[in-house]
Amino acid sequence: MTASVLVVYATRYGSTKEVAEKITATLWENGLAVEIQPFKDVKTLNNVSAVVMGAPLQMFRWHKDAIGFLTRFRKELCEIPVAIFALGPFHDEESEWQEVRKELDKELANFPWLTPVSVSIVGAKYDPASLGFPFSMIPALKQIPALDIRNWDAVKSWAKELVDKINPGTN
Ligand SMILES: Cc1cc2nc3c(=O)[nH]c(=O)nc-3n(C[C@H](O)[C@H](O)[C@H](O)COP(=O)(O)O)c2cc1C
Predict the structure, then answer these.
(1) Residue 126 to residue 157: CA distance in whole angstroms
(2) Atom 4, ligand 1: which residue's CA is nearest?
(3) What pTM did the predictor assign?
(4) Most exposed among 34, 49, 121, 143, judged by the fewest C-beta atoms under 10 Å?
(5) What are the residue ranges of helices labelled H in the chain?
(6) Best substitution site from 58, 103, 122 to test ligand 1's pocket, by max atoms within 8 Å of Cβ?
(7) At what angle do helices 15-29 and 152-166 cross, to 10 degrees?
(8) CATH number at residue 115
(9) Domain range holding 164?
(10) Tens of pLDDT, residue by residue, the chain (171 residues)
(11) 8 CB less than 6 Å from ligand 1?
(12) Is the distance from CB of 144 to CB of 131 less than 8 angstroms?
């Protein structure tokens, strides 16, 4: 069985899944064998040559499925290239991007053994109308207008840059 790259993600409202799909398509177009799964469906990393993992930040925390994945597969993830992305910023402003990167770095600091080949922040997709309880009760969240600042060209460029970093043939 040929080893392939695994793109693995968590999503609450669907936007991270779409980013994971774009990354998967780009890796495929660039000649890599690649599969995509939600974190929860991953039973083993046998025959996985590299992992690209992504999840949204929510209430200053990275999605719990991403944290659970790092805990479950520590041994395997120490032996293959790992690239990470997180969705978060509501505005295309450098200061907010840096804050979100700090939120993510704080989460990743709990996994000092993890040395990602690349880390990327992707802008948020957000719709206050989709908020369920208890988030629908938080005025600061309800006031944020619907937005989608995911930059698809940047996502594609990042995925292209990953090709050489995670392709076993070029390591
Ligand atoms: C209730 C809620 C809380 C959020 N909290 C954060 C946060 O603390 N930090 C951040 O950077 N983004 C935050 N976001 C933005 C999400 O990361 C963003 O909307 C993302 O695109 C959602 O991903 P999903 O559609 O895959 O669930 C929050 C979004 C929601 C709806």
Answers:
(1) 23
(2) 58
(3) 0.97
(4) 143
(5) 15-29, 64-72, 74-77, 94-108, 139-142, 152-166
(6) 58
(7) 50
(8) 3.40.50.360
(9) 4-170
(10) 677 999 999 999 999 999 999 999 999 999 999 999 999 999 999 999 999 999 999 999 999 999 999 999 999 999 999 999 999 999 999 999 999 999 999 999 999 999 999 999 999 999 999 999 999 999 999 999 999 999 999 999 999 999 999 986 654
(11) no
(12) no
Answer yes or no: is the C-beta of 107 below 6 A from any ligand 1 atom.
Answer: no
Does the beta carbon of 56 lie inside 6 Å of ligand 1? Answer: yes
Q: Is the Cβ atom of 125 under 6 angstroms away from ligand 1?
A: yes
Token digits of residue 160? 């292209």
Please enumerate in sequence order all residues whose Cβ is within 8 A of that of 148, keeping only pairs 6 or more positions apart, or say none: 15, 123, 124, 125, 126
* Torsion angle (degrees, nearest 10) of CA 95, 98, 100, 102: -140
Q: Which residues contact 61 (CB under 8 A, 6 or more apart)?
A: 103, 107
Are 83 and 53 in contact by the 8 Å Cβ rule? The answer is yes
Q: Which atom of ligand 1 is nearest to the CA of 58?
A: 5
Tokens 């993890």 sit at which residue? 114
Question: How far apart are the C-alpha atoms of 125 and 47, rounded to whole Å?
Answer: 33
Taking alpha carbons only, the member of 71, 26, 68 closest to residue 167 is 26
